[in-house]
Queue: 3 jobs
Job 1
Amino acid sequence: MSEAARGSIGGGRYLLVRVVASGGMGKVWEGLDTRLGRTVAIKEVSLDRIPPIEHTEFLARAVKEGHNAAALADHPNIVTVYDVVNEGGSPWTVMQFVKGGSLAGLLKSGPMAVDAVAAMAGQMLSALGLAHRVGIVHRDVKPHNIMIEDGDGRALLTDFGIAKNTRDAALTQTGIVIGSAAYMAPERYDGDSDNPASDLFSLGVTLFEAAEGYSPFAKGSATGTVTAILAKPLPDTEHAGRLRPLILALTEKDPDSRPTVEQAQAMLTEALVVRGQHSGASTGPRAAFQPKPEPMPELKPEPEPEPKPDPESVRESKPVQKQPTWRNAGTIILTGHTKAVRSLAFSPDGRTLASGGNDGTIRVWNVATGTLRGALAAHTGGVVELAFSPDGATIASSGKDKAVRLWNAGTGAMTATLVTDAARPQSIRYLTFSPDGMTLAGTGLATGSGLFGHAWLWHGTGADPTTLTSRGSDVGAAAFSPDGRRLATGGRSVKIWDLHSGAVVNSFRRKGVQLFNSVTFSADGRNVTGVSVGLGATKVTWDVVSGQATSHTVGDAADRNGIQNLQAFVSLTMGPAAFSRNARTFAVFGGQQIRVCRMADASILGTLKIHGSLNSGVRSVAISPDSRIVAAGGSDNLIRLWSDAFAVW
């Protein structure tokens, strides 16, 4: 007679007290460790449903995975494994006894409150984060394997695959697949069982069930369930509220489009921050930015202030203005980039957002739905800058590989690789199309007999470029005049180039300003504005003929803290008529904040903040042509979107 039959295992060390749970794969006992005098849980795994030929392999895997689970013993949200015992030819796992029940049992009485789901999500992400860091993939995250402790409600992840069947067994043996199949990621059915992203898919399905009260892909049969996992979209949520964006991201079919644990934790933090600001029905990538029934009011352009003489000691002061009310519907997060998002660009109609990352990819997003239209392997070493042509048909990109490429915005096909002259650039840092779309300008540094700033002008898709060289000075951001005859470039000074002769016709500097990060022309082409961002931010507008200037400082001393770089000016339309409303506002950003300012007087319209770890800093910003959406790319590889951010202009 085996020791188990007599009520103990492990040479009599572990007493079997009572069965607390049972299922098709075995039982869980409450037990007693007689050596240490503590209550333990003992999982008995039945080999009845495992083919005899697989018993040896199954036992070896059980012991190995038991050891893996034991390596995670110090985490407060992982059930500690104390021992694995081979008794009577079957594996018995001795582990921490949790005074409580499983999440599956708890959900029999109905869905959980959103706050409780959010707390559980944070604990499970923390547990999976540790597991993934040490190379362990759980492979069976589901409500049955999450224990909820009585009293404090702490969630603990258990059963690190010890009783898990292989994929083939799960798909071929009746009665085994239903328990886990409803939570298995699509790639698992293609044999990819070691991808940590599969755990996050399973967690997303579990969070959906916890919030909504039912499993989204369970169909009552193995075939129906697998079909739903592989091909059916996640059902709409009714109760998930602010957790909806996180659940949608975790349950993406493509594992490369799911967030990492760290990104998911950042999304959860965002969800907690915007608590109470919106309802679940109005948030999440698939419901974001739907047009409102009423049209947006027409925004009339504000006149630029009259140019004034430019004695360096005179600066125009502005009265302190009350901060406007912001109508922030919450942060929508797009995932997929595996490195920092360095560049963003909206299409002229505002329906498409292109993002470029240090992972070398360009991702093209449908703004109305928040879904990915496609991803391009664009550059080695990272994407530096993006620009849409005025008709929206072409995307131009530059990369750290020193290449400039053109892409069909509809199909993703590369249409041209543009060349520079013999002075090879370090990289093209800024790109902009002429109003008629016939010329692409790129600016940056080039090496030769010295370090000079250059602007390259490509006419068409294959011709060698015209090169504009600024000796002894860098050339930064660029902007075409409304008639396309002149080019303004930023840098230590703002230069105006005549594109027919290639000569600099005017150059403007400002005392105390080290670098003009961005430039733009006024709608009538008479004025040019440069914005400098360093320890603070300054806007200077010059009359392009007389050189008379007007200067404004962005915010007060407190506002200037943390501002590091300027990314985007807002234009309400693009193309030949774009400059009638070009540069109504501009955005400066630094650290984890974005400040959106009025162009006329540099007053701050409002501040957007991201909430996450210290590595969540803003790397790029863009604002949609209708000014209703602000997009930010982060160092944490995420893209954040704010809808209808401006309530007052």
Job 2
Amino acid sequence: MTTPTMNQRDISFQLHEMLDVAQFSERERFADHDKDVFDAVIDTAMNIAADLFEPHNRKADLNEPTFDGEKVHIIPEVKEALDAYIEAGFIGAQHDYDHGGMQLPATIAMTCSAIFNAANVGTSGYPFLTVGASNVIRAYGTEDQKKRFMEPMIAGRFFGTMCLSEPQAGSSLSDIKTKAIPQEDGSYRLTGNKMWISAGEHELSENIVHLVLAKIPGGPEGVKGISLFIVPKFLVNDDTSIGDRNDVSLAGLNHKMGYRGTTNTLLNLGEKGGATGYLIGEAHKGLFYMFHMMNEARIGVGLGAVSLGYAGYLYSLEYARNRPQGRHPDGKDASSNQLNLIEHADIRRLLLAQKAAVEGGLGLCLYAAKLVDDENTETDQDKKKEASLLLDILTPVVKSWPSEFCLEANKHAIQVLGGYGYTRDYPVEQYYRDNRLNPIHEGTHGIQGLDLLGRKVIMNKGAGLELLVRKMTETSQSARKNPALAEFSDLLDHAIENVVNVTRALAAEMQQGHINLALANATLYLDMFGHLVLAWQWLKQALVASEKLNQGPTKDDQNFYLGKLQACQYFYRFELCKVEPWSKLLGSVDDTTFSASAEIF
């Protein structure tokens, strides 16, 4: 059974009916583009993903990269797909024309990324990291660094990585030990080890440009002493041709449960005296620069989680429509025809749960992508500031909510297929394994909770939260005018009140010095906050769907919009109701986890 891995009708709904991306054409940066161009780019992505990415998704999973001590071996279909991706210009989608890019909005570029991730997340990992690394060099690199490293990346000649973690440090970046020693020619010599580096070694491109976090001796302690360096696999000559091999070596491959098509590596820097590196920006500001890449990558991780959840949903939906099994509980005649799975209420529950997660998650992630565009290209300074505030507070949710709850959707997809679901004969078990990595990628679920509660909702005296609540309330007020949506308006208002009250209570605890206790349940706070945000997103979708239904759509569109309303109803009645008990537990400043001593385990 072959099914699409993304719903192009829903993509069109999100881009044009929800976000009105055609308005980007009014901005100077995107003036050469219009709705037809955006749609053509999406069509191209869908075609390449279907023809060249999806067909080897299973093969790459079953035949993961190997290392023979000298080189890494990857199935040939990966390079064939990436060559087509490069030829179509997707690596440079957001970059300036002057650097060989297509100067497309982030909203369109990230939509394309979602399409490729859904089709084959392992192969998509190579350009995903390259795009992120090139964006950092674009933002903070010198003109020579842009010419020497970024432009070959945009052209697809060089790929990129980001090298943060180390074997002993993991997410605790203040504990990294990689050193960078200044040289007389302005370069640096780096020595150390980097762990969990995706796409850290391969022969899919002429070169690999590693962005490496390291400390310059004598700098400040902790994260304030971290700098960022370009460390290429091969040195690059003035004309961007390849020079000598740099002192970066592959110590071994890590073997993860998912993303098996992407090499994951342990890299040694400086086995022969030191790897040559080039400082990006100012010394000791590396973490700030890297967060430019990480924040976009966090949106990308959330979108990737949506994509894998979506692929599982579409497969299980098609399976449920065509698989006969069982009869209704009141069906006593064993000789009667079996029903297709989709006729059973519990299967519909599983499908609605998936639909609510993936379509809501897609709306949230693309909304965040539009905020990136607004932050970068909006000329109205008030709107630009609003976009920045909203992006700050929403990024932990955008990264983590889909990573948790679209993974849950993958679990439901397996359940729809029953015993077949956890066999390798069907793709849903791979989607689950692939998606299980996303709660860890780019900062774990727990770290995102600490970031949201410990920083984002209280920074700038709560300005971001205040703005978000205002936006939610505006949506609620609009919905109240529609009798079919008034119920959801009331439920949203009540959830907003609960979340605001518990946020104030926990902020007060932190102000009184009880920081560790207040943050002990930050992960639960993130889940609660995320559910509120998704409820808001679903009510926005329901408002548009309701309006479209009043315009007399075609039969197909009518069912599409009715599906939006049903999924909204599901989310409000089955998911948003969890906010109240969560808020009560959080508001009590429960110490169950905080007070559990290490000795009791």
Job 3
Amino acid sequence: MQQLNDPSNWSRIPSLNDVTLKDVADQQLVHFLGMIQDMHNPELFLERYEVQHCVSSLTAVRLGKYWDIPRCGPDEVLVDDSVHNVNKERQSLCCISVPALNSWAKQPYGTNLNRSTACISKQPDRNEKGHPDESPSVNDAEPSPKRLCTDNRKSAANDLESNLPLPGPEAKTCLVKVYNNDEKLSLNDVIEVIGFLSKDPVMENVSNFEEMDEDGDVCNHVQQVPLPPRLHALCMRKRKHCNPLVDHAFCNTGEMLGLARTVRDDLHLVLSQMLLGDHLAADYLICHLISTVFQRSELLALGQFSLNLSGMLTTDGYSRHLYAVLEQLLTKSHFLPLTLDNLNKGTFIPRKDYEQNRLLSGLLQLSAQTHLVLDETCLQQGQLDSNGVHNIAALGALISQQKVDYDFKYYTLEFHTDVPVLVLSEGKSLLPSNVNVPLEFDAHSLQTKKEIFEAVGHFLQEPMLHKLRKYLTVMSHLQYSLPQDLEKVIQDDFVRLRRGTGSTTSASDLHLLLVLARLVSLSRGEQSLSKESWELACSMEKQRKHRVSQYIRH
């Protein structure tokens, strides 16, 4: 247990993310990285209980922690009124593979593991006096099916595994049992768990069993179906990010701060090439890629920076080429073509199924810092049905307020998100955005875009990819402050700006400028706003607004 206090040792334990269930043993110590998709009501379990052998009348006290159910052999019964029985509560979490986690970020845990380390399992139980429990027909016996009365057996594994925001062939589902957890957990948190795997053969293979009421009488027959693996947590931590190149506690980020401007220049080169010579759009895209919600105030999600790149090419799969580059750089991302079919038939909002007592996932149930790229260039003429209108409204709320209203049938429940949204459109998007940048392509780049794509592919090799991936994660999590000596400069510049533009410059423009200045500073490795970064942000906005006005005239 002491070795598990050091998370650097966790990668030596086999991961359920990377192996099949047949490759790991029941009660083996395993590793799992996942997102909390649903949170069940706390469940009671017997932390300690007494069993009695029916023939010899010998009794033994067993520990129930880290086990699904009390373990009784074929000739044993649970002593219901024993003074040794202790009831406790544990939390049950339905966890799934982290949605939209890009392939490069799926760290293959346990690949260099030797057999002795891989097969760590539970130690023998200790009885009341601290000695190993040696009661007859106990350790190797299977529990009686008649005692399975603690879980809801009607949930099928295949149903649970299909309950994913973004289904995929490698997606996994795991029920995590949490004991004595001090961290506040919420839906969509990403957690990393070390625990004992439960593949109880009775719970998985018995075709049916008799469910018993409080008096011990058989009340009905319940069809037994396979359950997903259960993981009884020994150690657990919330993950701030899923980038395997960056330390969880950001202890190894000092070097990246010193290299920030150089790496930013490399990233700007890549993005400006992919945007066919548009350097201003590349500047805004960098700011968008490191944006994150750092505070909430009333209806505002401070720090969000949704971006609409309009004037996109609609030929040669240009949007997908651009996304293919972003996918190589971002830890978590998803590309969604906004076709009528996707809008009308898609399930975007999670909803509660009261019959099965579980939360059915939707596409917008995503963990923080999952980048959503919406391709509006494929939206054809047609009619949105009621579901399509509902999905468009959900996207609008996500973009403008960084929230998703989950459907609980009789009411909606608001969940905050931190999902940066990039909208690619031919004209100005139908969806809201913080910033619209009309693209201006270089004429020569338009003629040589195929060669440009190939050149970018050659450029994005290690160690360059390593630096860019690390840069985006580190810069998005940097602490930031606004120096007092710059507040007067900002105020004077804003007054001057209002005088020059009349009433067209509002308080929302100042708010956008402050957000942009923060992102410009962070992109340059600055943790407090400098006058140079403030002036650069003002210059970017001046160029963008001029471009937007030109775009409207034409």
